[in-house]
Amino acid sequence: MQSFRAAIEIYLSLLRGVRRRALWIPILSAISGVLESSSIVILFSTNFISASPETGKVARLVLDMGITPLAGVVIFLLVYGGAAGLQYAVRLLEGTVMTHVELEKRAGLMLDVIRAEWVYLSAVPIEKIHTALTSCIYALRVGLKAFLELASDTLVLAAFVVVATITAPLPVFSACLAGMVYLGFYLQITRKIRANAAETPRANGTLFREYGNVLHNLKLWKVSADNERINANLRPALNKIKEIELVAKHLSARNRFGFLMFGGLFIAALTLTAIYTNGTATGSVFAIIVLFLRISSKVFNIQAAILGLVHQYHSIKMLHDLQLDMRARGERVTGKVKAQLQRQMTFERISFSYESNNRSVFKDLSFVLERGQFIGILGRSGIGKSTLLDMICGLLKPSSGRISVDGADFSDLDLSHWRRSIGFLTQEAPLVTGTVRDNILWGQPYDADRFQSALRDANLEEWVHSLTGGIDAKVKSGGIQFSGGQRQRLALARALYKGASLLLLDEPTSSVDRESEVQIVKAIEKLKGNTTIVLITHDQEILKSADVVYTVVNGGLTRVTEELSSGVA
After folding, report:
1. C-beta atoms surrounding 256 within 10 Å
2. What does pLDDT average to over the chain?
3. Please, which residues have CB within 8 angstroms of residue 106's CB and are 6 or more apart in sequence?
4. Cα dihedral sign for 218, 224, 226, 232?
5. Which residues are registered as beta bridge partners of 360?
6. CA torsion through residues 482, 483, 488, 493, sign
7. CB of 2 closer than 8 Å to CB of 309
8. DSSP track, 180-214
């Protein structure tokens, strides 16, 4: 029951923004339950009066009111119709609340991902985030539906039981005693379902990881022609999910079978008792039987809802905990100083170590980046060049030392404003599914002159216009139909269209051919003087026009500009 209570707490927190609307669901459900159960009692009592006058309280009340069988049918239709209308309203409210919560959760989770510290994000497995955004969100929708139905069906059930108790208290009391016996069986099933459900998030995470391994390396898998290996990698995860689902279905079926058998025995016992006691099955007995069938339906719905909450709990908890972790590790981006590198950016005795392995990357690093300067940084892979760019962006914070922009401490900067002035080209040069225009605009409004200027400065104008569709040419996922050099220049055009005054380039020519490298270098040289450039690379040839070149040595930067002309790095 601890999982059930924890799930209830999570669902109540999810409804925080729509609580008033959600509150109407149980209220309308309770009224609907009273109307529906009352209509059933009225119908059967009035239509059995002539054959076998009742002695129960409800029947006597009906007789005293002088309600005829025909009038009873009319009243039944009116009252039952009102109950049906209220249930219709309840379902609409449930759909509205569920859709609102799901969409807000999806949007909120993505914002939390973007707002989290880079150190935290880089340590979280990508498949965990993918699982949260897909299967965990689906689990939340299923679980939330179960939660809302649990609230509404519980109050409908309560209304049915109250009316049934007033109509015939002894059978209801007997049913409650028998229900206590069934409860032990039900709790046993619930424990097994909870244990089985605990494996679901882990199994989904494993499956998404295997999917990612294939989808992110499609060309390699195609060339290797090793389909059997792909199947062998996927099969254990798929079999585990299949096993979990089959166990869940089996336990749910056992629960339904047990309840239906219990219900059938109760109805048979009630009917036989009425016949042998009164000589006939009276109107109250028929009303109780019908009410019991409706109660059975609601009880089964409630059971299914509880099992749904328990089954989805671990996925929902994973989503909930991940979001709490991200919010706890959210980065502070709302400083007061809106800097944009008007003069210089200064690194003073900077030291940096990664939390995960405590490996020291920089120690007492100091240098100055002047506005309009082209700085090149040489060094082998893994020595810390990319870490330096991450610190310039504010993605990573130094362990000690001071970074300042135009004299303002970096910790006082409005990081969102600072990052809007930065164009960042990574080695992968990511592109999104859409058009060439979409990939350069990156969500910004279209300005034709600015767009053409960005194409021209990135040496893309002729190539883009040669494409079918021009700037509206389709781009596949990741831009797989383009070469590495074309993707890099599209990414450069994106930075130029953004109006970036500070351009950071991380190995922009490492995955391109010689011709593309020449085009990229020419584009960079056009920007020299007007745009501040920091380019990291292991290839000194592309740094010939740099104002200053450093190499990373022993956790610091050593100036090597004078030696470039002689080929020494």
Report:
1. 14
2. 80
3. 133, 137
4. negative
5. 353
6. negative
7. no
8. HHHHHHHHHHHHHHHHHHTTHHHHHHHHHHHHHHH
User: Rounded CA gap, 290 and 56, in Å?
Assistant: 17
384 is written with which tokens?
């810390």
- Unique residue bearing structure tokens 């016996």: 181
Domain boundary among 274, 294, 328: 328
Give strand pairing partners of 425.
505
Residue 61 in this model has a pLDDT that exceeds 60? no
CB 148 within 8 A of CB 95: no
487-511: per-residue pLDDT in tens?
Answer: 888 988 998 898 888 999 998 887 7
Q: Which domain holds residue 398?
A: 344-564
Alpha-carbon distances, residue 428 vs 425, 490, 506 (angstroms): 8, 12, 9
How far apart, in whole angstroms, are the C-alpha atoms of residue 36 and residue 164?
12
CB 376 within 8 A of CB 535: yes
| Residue 473, Cβ density class (10 Å: 0-12 exposed, 13-18 middle, ≥19 buried) | middle
* Residue 320 sits in the same domain as residue 353: no
Could you give the angle at the alpha carbon of 185 between the alpha carbons of 180 and 190, nearest 5°? 115
Pair (528, 558) in one structural domain:
yes
Q: How many domains does the chain have?
A: 2
Phi, psi of 552 (to 5 degrees): -85, 120
The domain spanning residue 397 has which CATH number?
Answer: 3.40.50.300
Per-residue confidence band for 476, with pLDDT thresholds at 50, 70 and 90: confident
Tokens found for residue 103? 């969409």
- Lowest mean pLDDT of 68-77, 178-187, 276-285, 393-402, name the range: 276-285
Report the C-alpha gap between 355 and 350 in whole angstroms: 16
Specify whether the backbone of 554 is left (phi greater than 0), alpha (psi in -120 to 50) or beta. left
Question: CA 84 to CA 474: how far, in whole Å?
Answer: 51
**Is 485 inside a domain boundary?**
yes
How far does CA 522 lie from the centroid of its chain? Answer: 43
Q: Which residue has the tokens 């990291």?
A: 536
Same domain, 50 and 85: yes
Q: Report d(CA 72, CA 40) in Å as an integer.
A: 10
Q: What is the pLDDT of residue 502?
A: 92
Q: Residue 141 phi/psi, 5° resolution?
A: -65, -45
Do 361 and 505 belong together in one domain? yes
The 3-state secondary structure of 340-402, one letter per residue: CCCCEEEEEEEEEECCCCCCEEEEEEEEEEECCCEEEEECCCCCCHHHHHHHHHCCCCCCEEE
Looking at the fold, whether 266 and 384 belong to one and the same domain comes out as no
Report how far residue 38's alpha carbon sits from residue 393's, in angstroms, rounded to the nearest whole number. Answer: 68
Dihedral sign from CA coordinates of 392, 396, 399, 402 = positive
Distance (Å, whole) CA 79 – CA 177:
31
Two structure tokens written together for 93: 């409210």
CA distance 314 to 139: 9
Stated pTM of the model: 0.70
Alpha-carbon gap, residue 29 to 42, rounded angstroms: 20
In this structure, the answer to whether residues 381 and 306 fall within a common structural domain is no
The three-class DSSP label of residue 137 is helix
- Of 43-52, 100-109, 200-209, 510-519, the range with the lowest mean pLDDT is 43-52
Question: Do 506 and 389 form a contact (C-beta atoms < 8 A)?
Answer: yes
